[in-house]
Write a structure and sequence with these properties.
The complex is a heterohexamer, with 3 copies of chain A (112 residues) and 3 copies of chain B (463 residues). Chain A has 112 residues and is of the alpha+beta class. Chain A contains 2 helices and 7 strands. The chains are: A alpha+beta (112), B mainly alpha (463). Bound molecules: adenosine-5'-diphosphate (ADP) (3 copies).
Chain lengths: 112, 463, 463, 463, 112, 112
């Protein structure tokens, strides 16, 4: 199994979720995060002092899928999350060794 | 006979009464003697009375009434915090700074522009019944402005009292619009629109009713006690025009379905509604325009009963029809009850006020649903609460408060139409010139970052 | 001699005084002449006075007092926002919508039911001293209800003023219970219970004291100025009964140990306590029932001093015994000082009020700890703050305010017992019929989702 | 002639007037006869009047004025919630419990210590013009304290009214400091400092102006209506001394650059400023010290206009110079307008108040920037808002309100210097003894955990 | 070493933590997340419009353990977090290559 | 590529970020978390009842880097985050198989 971790712009969450539903992904876990990246340099002023807002609000979507589904999952995310503007985010894929559904003790693909 | 005259003088006088010229001289002389003979406090007090001129007899009543006026003004001021928190609570956190900023700006520019032009437009001197632009208030103190003869029993306050109470009302219209256009309006354009609305639109239309304009000439006289129409429906229909020009928030209506965009803090929203309820005691209670105990007691009671009835009705309606006891509907129910009773708070009894509130509470639920079905996206329900229910409240006076139905109907529709058209034109011009809506990107990112470069809850966001 | 009589008439009159029939005719005639001769303002003012009938002499005092009554009512109203935010702050965020909803409902149904039955039960006409159910308030305006003779100096307000001030109090009892049963009570059952409590329980028990009931017949007369017993202990012991029937929240008492369930927002809780402190100036100050300067000044001072002393005492106690300066205890200390002084705010001086507050502040800390050791789970400390300290405040009148100890004891225990038994029966019936507690699952998930399908802070939860 | 005398008596009497001994006996006798003949209400009312002694004539005015005093006190009380939420909002969430706790403590100890020593130090009897320590207030009721002769028209309140209104002011000085030293001050040390400041520093310096001290002997008399200097500049410069001794927060000034530490909740900050604005109506309005309609109306108007002008000016300034419409600057602009108008709110007209507010609003923006460049770290801008603008407001009286420039300058600088030196000494002693700053570790972890062991938003933090 | 990631119902955190303590697990990192899964379909109404609350509050528990402890860790979590109702969550296991304790620079198992 | 996950004390975020910038790390994702570890045992009192605050506020920093950069990344974090006091946190390193930049579809090291 693979863990697909996608950092996206918050307002794209809805589209990403739908795009994943469309390809049959039934589960995911979402976290509010702050992202630091190239999209930095946006200088603000607070009470007269300049500062750089390095950390921008992002959403982290984590999905565990069967190996076979990893690519189309990534594609679906990329398609839905793209605006073409800096700060669109990344998708990282890594390996997961096992999965269990707590409710039923099912394991492996069954658990997803 | 001379004694009788003296006694009459004293009879009318709650304090001191200097009625006939001949009496005057004598009395003041005597008083001066007394003061000279050492009673300093009496002298100070007499000076206060003398400053009232021939209206000294009403000084104590006048003092109490004026005190009520300024306290009521303070309560209406608090409504602006209520609006700010309600609006912030019912919208997303990425637009919170923008909403708070707009509300700070509205109350500030509202009061300033009311001083600069609004007050004297609202209450014009020489008046054709339709429009008469005013000028800066200048110095409102001095004889005739600080005394009972400024308005007598019917406006028992000083000119400054009159100004500050009305100034607090004035910004309300723009605040109502603020809620409806939230989350996508361009800050600069909104600020311009809000300024024009409170400086010109509101006082001109208000003068039709409160300034002695044409609405008073209708059969029986248009009746709108504290402004269900001239404040609330005015704001509600101004909001409708703006929302129509602005369009719905991205993602609200997708594939023919309504997708609610949830507010980010129900505690903030609830604080807002309680503060609005509180402030309404000043809004309606202060509109008695004196501290007349009978009037104030009745208005407090009808206001509270209508608000509570509105809440219970909205709770029941949402539970029955929407299957859940919806807090946001309960909150709107309170506001609906308040808006509904505003036109007739001084002219109906407890039972009628409960009925008016119930109908308001039911109406607001269906109105909110209705506007969503026609894709009018109003994040806080301002058009329904203030616009639709404002009309209902005005008409209710015909049913329960002795108003003439046709007069009420003409009045409320004229005011609503005027607000709508005025806003359509002003906001329309802004739309075709500098634009009224932020870019899709800015909307997605949130106005806090795009317009202000500030987050509302930035705790660890800085570097 | 005739002159003397005239002068007496005028002496008693702060405005106009129509004392003897023979005088009447003359004077009014003269007044009418004056009005006819052109002074319109004088005429309007005279009309106001005339509406007061023979009590015109007290018109200005009456007006000021009535104004204070409605402002005090507004301040007591604000206490409901205080309760709502305090309760929300001291509980978990998954139950926040539920808590806000309950509080919106309580104030709404509280005022409505007080109009429908409560007011006339609370202040019954024909009365055996124990129970007399009342009916809808109807129209409370007109002669004898809008004038000084409604209550004289001792109740210087119109009937509507009396109603609205008391109505704001009424809902308090249910609000106190709301806090104690938070986070596990079934919404529907609580709504039924709250309605019965404020519509029947509170006014019946209140009538024993304020309605001229049997507590007044005790030696020296039961003394409870603004309701340490008849409002606060009543609410606190109603809460105790409910909590006993309801049981503690899941996870609070595990393996014989107390596991605190932390509130989710100390700012909300602090806002709540400050608003309650503010509102208490209306609660106690308004209970002077006139604007009598001596009374109002004393009551504001004792109320503030007791609250501050309670806070400092609770801070010291928690720092000494619990090792940390505990904000939640400081907040409870303020409330304890306020509840403690409520019974005797008008009958003790600064020093006594400080002592009463200090004892209240110490008491509340140990009381909260005590109830936890006996597994009475009260998320906001309502039983301690309102119940235990309410009893202390009532007894304190015997020590510092001239009350008779046994009378105070009998009084406060009767009221507390009545609240307890009434609630035990009503809530008990609800328990065996429709149930009073949500399922373990719903409790775990939170009442916001299970009862309302709404989150308090839903920012990105929608789809 | 005898008639004339009677008439004068009645003329001066708004209610009853017992001027000359000879008249007294007769009238009271007659009144007693009337009461005996059955009119109980008249009797009660007459008793109230009689309690006023020879000042019965002013009873109604006195009652209304006293009512305004206590309501104003309640409004000033609310400012403390405003300060608490503003300060909490503009700082990090890890210090929120600490900030709320400090504010609860300050208002509590402030009112208590004002009773114990402050009031009689502030308004000393036998006085050398510089210092005279007072004692516990004791019982402030009784003849001469509950009646018009307590202060006449110029202080139309009972002694308790005077006490409670001034007590609410007293704690303000410490609250101002609280904001400036937030996020790194040691709790215990701050509590000691705050107590000494409100118990001794504030009333001693205040007595120079309001207690009949030396500032009144300057040419033309130092003019500071509601305390731009003796409250605000006092607090602001006390804050400056503390901040200098305390040093900036870790991470604020790094490598010669200013790194803003963002506040955690703009809604809380905004709620705070609106509540402060509201409370200021009591702060300035109540400082009229009677309900004199002319005075109250003017003060409400100038206060509101200056606040609004300050907001608009700060918005414009921050937009022009800082490129963004900065909400926090808009909020500070409101406060700057309010502080600026405080010295002359009763002595200038609308236009002047707008100008005073605008200058305050511009000033505060640059002042905040200035203090950051010299590494004075003031998280909420208290030194600029209260200190710098407090001086401006006091000087403005010379330009617009008829004050003497040199007198105003000497007065405001003396007060500011006194506050600064007093704080430098007291806080300095604390620094070298028990220390005034938490450890770097505690600061990093946050004061909530290190000082209180409590989180402000602990929702799932417990176990 | 293994990273055990468990998505559980928020109110089960306490029990899971205790169950882990019982088997000697001394460290974990917890995040508030929103979960999307089969437990969806719970339709709500907001101001008159129906919508589906797809994202439900969940808690993500992350624990790095020695390879040998991975199984008992998973078991302990599953046991404690189970209610048998839909939405109980999942446990995912993947490999971790190295660990360092910042305070002491200890690495590997020592660092856990 | 490697995923470096560091749990650190919140007030160290700024220094960690700068330390990473210094070695040329251009992206990271940050989450507010609660940590449970040896730093426990800190007993508090809430309304008179003792309880242990097991979960302390921490910040989780996640950085995906080229294999070659993993070590210096870890070192930079450890150096910046160290206070020497208990509770400083951990750094965990695991493998990432692929990365995509949503905006450009770049993959692998290009995407970081
Ligand atoms: N090396 C990285 N490791 C972890 N997260 C990263 C990394 N680089 C970027 N991110 C995340 O992706 C987000 C977007 O990256 P950024 O460089 O701003 O723009 P883009 O995605 O267009 O290249 C960042 O805000 C951050 O959350
Ligand atoms: N494929 C997945 N990848 C990541 N997280 C998942 C996945 N499937 C489910 N989850 C998480 O587990 C939670 C519970 O899953 P759900 O399908 O609702 O119920 P159950 O655990 O009973 O099967 C979800 O809310 C989500 O947070
Ligand atoms: N085994 C683990 N798995 C995941 N996170 C851990 C683990 N052990 C510790 N942590 C995280 O590291 C933080 C610090 O650990 P702790 O044991 O308190 O101190 P130290 O880092 O000094 O050993 C914890 O609060 C927790 O967030």
């Amino acid at each position: 199994m693979k863990l697909v971790k996608a950092v996206i712009k918050p307002f794209k969450l809805e589209e990403v979720k739908e795009s994943l539903s469309d390809i049959g992904i039934e589960g995911m876990t979402v976290t509010e995060v702050k992202g630091f990246g190239r999209q930095k340099g946006h200088t603000e002023i607070y009470r007269g002092s300049e500062y750089t807002v390095d950390f921008l609000p992002k959403v982290l979507v984590e999905i565990v899928v069967d190996d076979a589904d990893a690519e189309k999952t990534t594609e679906a995310i990329v398609k839905a999350a793209k605006t073409g503007k800096i700060g669109d985010g990344k998708v990282f894929v890594s390996s997961v060794e096992s999965a269990i559904r707590i409710r039923t003790d099912e394991t492996g693909s069954e658990a997803l | 006979m001379k004694i009788k005259k003296y006694l009459l003088a004293l009879l009318l006088s709650s304090s001191a009464f200097l009625m006939t010229g001949s009496l005057n001289a004598d009395m003041v002389m005597s008083a001066e003697a007394a003061v000279a003979s050492g009673d300093e406090l009496a002298g100070d007090y007499l000076a206060l009375l003398e400053a009232q001129g021939e209206y000294a007899y009403a000084f104590d009543f006048f003092t109490t009434s004026m005190l009520w006026t300024v306290i009521a003004a303070a309560l209406v001021f608090l409504m602006h915090l209520g609006f700010a928190t309600l609006e912030a609570g019912l919208t997303q956190s990425k637009n919170t700074v923008n909403i708070l900023f707009k509300n700070v700006f509205i109350i500030s520019i509202g009061i300033l522009s009311y001083a600069v032009i609004g007050f004297n437009t609202h209450y014009p001197g020489d008046f054709n019944g339709w429009v008469a632009f005013g000028s800066f208030i200048g110095d409102l103190s001095g004889p005739g402005m600080d005394t009972f003869d400024y308005g007598g029993v019917g406006l028992a306050m000083t000119a400054y009292g009159d100004f500050i109470f009305q100034a607090m009302f004035a910004a309300t219209a723009a605040t109502i619009v603020s809620g409806a256009v939230a989350e996508r309006v361009k800050l600069g354009s909104f600020m311009i629109f809000a300024t024009i609305l409170v400086a010109i639109g509101y006082p001109v239309v208000g003068s039709w009713h409160w300034g002695g304009g044409w609405l008073g000439t209708l059969e029986g006289g248009f009746y709108d006690f504290a402004g269900s129409s001239v404040v609330h429906a005015f704001g509600g229909f101004a909001a409708l025009a703006c929302v129509m020009l602005l369009g719905p928030r991205a993602g609200k209506y997708v594939d023919g379905k309504v997708k609610p965009i949830l507010g980010h803090s129900m505690p903030l929203a609830t604080i807002g509604v309680f503060l609005l309820f509180l402030g309404w005691f000043g809004f309606n209670g202060g509109s008695v325009l004196s501290a007349n105990p009978a009037g104030v007691g009745l208005v407090f009671t009808t206001t509270a009963l209508a608000a509570c009835a509105g809440a219970v009705a909205a709770i029941a309606t949402s539970w029955l029809f929407l299957k859940k006891p919806d807090l946001s509907m309960a909150l709107n129910g309170i506001l609906a009850g308040l808006v509904a009773i505003t036109a007739g708070a001084d002219s109906m009894g407890p039972l009628a006020s409960i009925i008016v509130g119930i109908i308001g509470g039911v109406l607001v639920v269906f109105s909110i649903i209705f506007f969503d079905t026609i894709k009018i996206d109003d994040p806080v329900g301002a058009i329904s609460v203030h616009g639709v229910v404002g009309i209902w409240g005005t008409l209710a006076v015909a049913f329960f408060g002795g108003g003439v139905f046709m007069t009420q109907l003409i009045g409320t529709l004229s005011v609503s139409a005027a607000a709508f058209i005025f806003s359509l034109i002003v906001f329309g011009i802004l739309k075709v010139t500098i634009g009224v809506r932020v870019s899709a990107e800015e909307e997605a990112e949130g106005l806090d970052l795009s317009e202000h470069g500030q987050e509302a809850y930035p705790d660890f966001a800085s570097s």
